[in-house]
Design brief:
The complex is a heterodimer of chains A (268) and B (412). Chain A has 11 helices and 10 strands. Chain B is α/β, with parallel strands linked by helices. Chain B has a 7-stranded mixed sheet with strand order 4-10-9-8-7-5-6, sandwiched between helices. In chain B, β2 and β3 form a beta hairpin. Chain B is globular and about 60 Å long. Chain B starts with 6 loop residues before the first helix and ends with a helix. The model of chain B has no long low-confidence stretch (mean pLDDT 97). The chains are: A alpha+beta (268), B alpha/beta (412). The interface between A and B is medium-sized, with 29 and 32 residues. The complex binds pyridoxal-5'-phosphate. The site of pyridoxal-5'-phosphate has 12 residues of chain B, from α4.
Chain lengths: 268, 412
């Protein structure tokens, strides 16, 4: 009886911890991808053209994300000092997950007069993001390019969050030499950088002058990148067939792969 | 100099990728061969220190099947011993006397060995060694070196790797190489819980310079382990019989409790061995460990013939001298073209890195250029020399290396 109770308690503690990580992934990685979305998708950009507003999404005792919408652009700030025009509050990770996954309502603490922005523009933007992050087979070629780029960026942001929150990713980090991996898909002109930078898993859009790339991973075409993102790629075969090319410190590439494969453990 | 291309290799790889995960998996996979289009993946013939791929390209082989080949491919003495036994009896329903003869030979050859046990792969015996350490001590934790490789069983892999659970690695503590303080700390923090310390005799990780034990390291390790009643397991799977026929620990001057051998034990025939001290024989007898093909006698006959040949030829000395000469030449050629080639580890199975570029990209380009010219070099792993490599082969390899450095110089 006692040991059953202990097992149940430890399962609950684990579930709770995973929920925190999951909620952080939404708040600190997926929502910030809105800032990338409006850069590459004219439809999304037009939704917030001529709008200036900021939304604070606040998960009690865990994290805050501020989305500053400014005339077609979005800047995302984690744990900001300022509070937004709109303040959305989540009392628990479970509450936040209910909002992000099941359409439940957050608590509106400030911005009652701006509620229509949430109901209309913000809702439309979120749906547009989902359209690209969970693509169907009906996307046009241009949309597929956007989708792949956004999926990579949100995955890399998630990798960064997992580096701070997930013990497995932290252990992988300890076994990874410092270095930056450049990920690119030449066919669509995409590139992003991720690596063990200053002792953390970090995503950067573009390295500074002093930051040298230590490994590269390039996809020959869109199809290969799509297969990778949907977990349908045998990467070793792809290497042998020339659909992926790697150079440099291969262990960094391996370990980035391990970090990114942890995403599925939390979010499917 | 002819530059190889690989159309038939590519065709075979396409076929393979349709029916085999990874196309070619494990350490033969394209992943560490950077870039894969510089490398062959399918061979059709091997002889001495050379192999030929499906495109008919000829290579002087500096990987030696990643260690198993030591006398040369198709060594007549070993092959004949194998074939003789094969004709007499291969797998059977009872054990072969060859097993006893091989065990007796190993017990004679390896100073710490009072008994021997045979399996097929390196991991079979690293697993067995760890189980024996646990059985002997009644403890569950194992200390291993960060970056040390002991096979692919889940406990030997890292957390986060597909198929490996937290529980699988929960009892393995990884410490840095050559760090007695870290060892002491691990022993103190897990007082009375450590069964064994497993390590290669010197550090030969991949993608990284290899490292010899520091002065006094093994002596210090043995003192600490003795104090804590911990079994010392040397994983000599890769280096065994190359540095010293009595086990690489003899080369470095220390005496472990158990030694795992594989790779060079039978010149490529699949067999591995665990040898140990008398004090652990009863514990070894209690651990149930076996496999369908572990009693297959021709491989034992091959191992016996191979070890006898290595002894007759005083292989470690030949390999050491040849390695020194080979490496000296390579370093000199590199220098002539303005590159610093760093050679680490044992001269006969050294790791090579062009230090002018910390990302390994230059090393990768150079190895790729050499491979395309017929010297099979990888950029992530230590290479191996064999008894079949001659000075002439080495001179030819230097020419190839020089040509590749020329290309490298013109590209930077
Ligand atoms: C040092 C060392 N230990 C153990 C192993 C595992 O041997 P196997 O692949 O035969 O299981 C290897 C293989 O490369 C090795 O190099």
């Amino acid at each position: 009886m006692g040991s059953k109770l202990a097992t149940k308690c430890s399962q609950n503690a684990k579930e709770k911890k995973n929920n925190i990580i999951k909620a952080e992934l939404y708040l600190r990685a997926i929502l910030p991808t809105l800032s990338d979305l409006v850069k590459v998708d004219t439809k999304a950009k037009s939704i917030i053209e001529n709008r200036k507003i900021s939304i604070l999404l606040n998960l009690r005792n865990v994290t805050k994300t501020l989305l500053k919408v400014d005339n077609g652009k979005i800047i995302s700030i984690t744990n900001p000092n300022e509070c937004g025009n709109i303040h959305l509050y989540f009392i628990s990770p479970e509450h936040a997950l209910g909002v992000f996954e099941q359409g439940k309502l957050p608590i509106l603490l400030r911005g009652f007069t701006k509620i229509s922005f949430l109901r209309n523009e913000f809702d439309a933007l979120s749906k547009r993001l989902e359209y690209f992050l969970k693509p169907t087979e009906n996307l046009s070629l241009d949309e597929r390019k956007i989708s792949v780029a956004l999926q990579f960026k949100s995955a890399l942001r998630m990798g960064e969050v997992l580096g701070e929150t997930d013990e497995v990713c932290q252990t992988i980090l300890k076994n990874t030499t410092p270095g930056i991996l450049k990920i690119s898909i030449d066919e669509i002109g995409f590139e992003a950088y991720f690596g063990n930078i200053n002792g953390k898993w970090k995503y950067i859009e573009c390295p500074d002058k002093g930051q040298a790339v230590s490994s590269t991973l390039s996809f020959k075409n869109l199809e290969t990148a799509e297969a990778m993102l949907t977990n349908k790629l045998d990467t070793f075969s792809a290497l042998g067939l020339g659909n992926i090319q790697i150079w440099g410190l291969v262990p960094i590439i391996d370990n980035v792969g391990l970090v990114l494969s942890r995403i599925n453990y939390f979010i499917s | 100099m002819r530059i190889y291309d690989y159309p038939e290799n590519r065709k075979w790889f396409e076929r393979a990728s349709k029916v085999i995960p990874c196309g070619v998996y494990g350490h033969f996979s394209p992943a560490p061969c950077v870039p894969p289009d510089a490398y062959p993946f399918f061979g059709i013939k091997a002889e001495g220190c050379r192999f030929w791929d499906v495109d008919g390209n000829e290579f002087i082989d500096y990987m030696c099947a990643y260690g198993p080949m030591i006398l040369g491919y198709h060594n007549p003495v070993v092959d004949e011993a194998f074939l003789r036994q094969l004709r007499e009896c291969d797998v059977n329903s009872i054990a072969s006397t060859k097993m006893v003869e091989l065990a007796e030979f190993l017990v004679d050859l390896v100073p710490i060995a009072d008994w021997a046990f045979f399996a097929k792969n390196g991991a079979d015996v690293t697993n067995y060694a760890v189980m024996i350490a646990r059985a002997a001590t009644g403890r569950k934790k194992i200390i291993a070196i960060k970056g040390g490789y002991h096979g692919t069983s889940p406990w030997m892999q890292g957390i986060g790797h597909p198929g490996v659970t937290e529980e699988d690695v929960a009892n393995v503590i990884r410490i840095p190489w050559n760090n007695l303080n870290a060892l002491e700390q691990a022993l103190e923090e897990n007082y009375g819980e450590i069964a064994g310390f497993i390590s290669s005799p010197y550090h030969h990780p991949v993608f990284t310079d290899n490292e010899y034990p520091a002065e006094g390291y093994w002596e210090g390790v043995q003192k600490l382990l003795k104090k804590h009643g911990v079994i010392l397991i040397v994983d000599d799977v890769r280096a065994g019989f190359r540095l010293h026929l009595g086990g690489s620990n003899e080369f470095f001057g220390f005496k472990p409790d158990l030694i795992c051998f594989c790779k060079a034990i039978a010149n490529g025939y699949p067999i591995s061995a665990l040898v140990g001290r008398e004090e652990l024989k009863v514990d070894a007898s209690k651990v149930f460990h076996t496999g369908s093909y572990w009693f297959s006698a021709p491989y034992m006959a091959a191992a016996l013939a191979n070890l006898q040949e290595l002894k007759r030829l005083n292989a470690p000395e030949y390999l050491y001298k040849l390695g020194l000469k080979f490496n000296e030449g390579l370093v000199k050629i590199a220098k002539e073209y303005g590159f610093n080639l760093k050679v680490t580890g044992h001269p006969s199975m050294a790791y090579y890195r062009i230090t002018d570029d910390p990302t390994l990209m230059l090393t990768q380009k150079w190895c790729a250029e050499c491979t395309k010219r017929g010297a099979y070099f990888t950029s992530h792993h230590n290479w191996f020399l064999s008894m079949a490599h001659t000075e002439k082969d080495i001179e030819k390899t230097w020419e190839i290396a020089e040509d590749a450095f020329k290309i490298l110089k013109s590209s930077v």
